[in-house]
Amino acid sequence: MSANTDTRPGTAAIALMEAAEQLIAAKGIDGVSSREVARRAGQKNHSAVNYNFGSFEGLVEALIDYRSTPINCLREQQLDALLARTPEPSLADLVGLMVRPMAAQLLLPAGQHQFLSLLSQLLSRDHWREVFMRNRSQADAVNTLGALAEARLGKQLPTDVCHERLRLLGNHIVHSVAEWDAQIRGGALPRSEDALHWRIEDFITYSVAGLTAPAATTAGSKQ
After folding, report:
1. d(Cα 184, Cα 190) in Å, to the nearest integer?
2. What was the pLDDT predicted at 1?
3. Which residue ranges does the record assign to the HTH tetR-type domain (predicted)?
4. What is the pTM of this model?
5. Which residues of the chain have pLDDT under 70?
6. 10 alpha-carbon distance from chain centroid
7. 149 and 94 in contact (C-beta within 8 Å)?
C-alpha cells in the first residue's frame, strides 16, 4: 500500500487559517494571538493552532502557502502560454504576469482576499518578511519572471541597480494590491473588472517606466 501523500489542509486547519486572516486584516498581525484565532474558528481547544501548525508562525506560513498556491499556479500557466507565443517577452509582459494573477484575487467574493493585507504587513516587519520570502523563493514562476526581467534590464542598467529595482517592484506590487483590497473592503473602490482594469494596466506602465529609467550617475559605484 502506498503512503498517503495528500497534503491538503483539513477542515479544522482551513477554519483556523480563515479565522487568522480575518483577524489579521482587522487588527494587524501583531495584535492577534493563537488563542483568539482558535476562538474565532470555533475551536474549544485553545491550543488548536499549535496542534495543527506547531506555532502561530507555522499557521502564518501555512496560510501564505494556502492562498499563494492558486496564484502561483495561475501565474505558471500564463507564463507557459506567454513563452509559447514568444521566446523573448517584453518587460511589460513580464511585469504584467507579476501583477495580474495577484490582482485577480480582488474579484473573488468578499472575505476571500483578506490575506493580501497579511502579505503587505509581513513585508514591513523584519522577522515576518523572512517568512514571506521563504514562500516566495519556492514560487518557480516568480523566480523565472525575475530572471527574465533581469536579463532584459541587465542590458541597460548596472547589476546592483537592476536587483534593487526588481526587489522594490516586488514590494510595491504587494503593497499596491493590498491597498486596493483595503479600498474594496472599505467601500471606496468597487469590486469590478472596470474599476480594477485601468488601475492594473496603468500600474504596469508606471512600473516599466520606473524599471527602465536611467540609473543615477553614482549607481553601481556604491553598496
Report:
1. 6
2. 34
3. 16-63
4. 0.85
5. 1-8, 137, 217-223
6. 23
7. yes
Cell numbers at 100, concatenated: 495580474
**To which residue does cell 494590491 refer?**
177
Cβ-contact 152, 207 below 8 angstroms: no
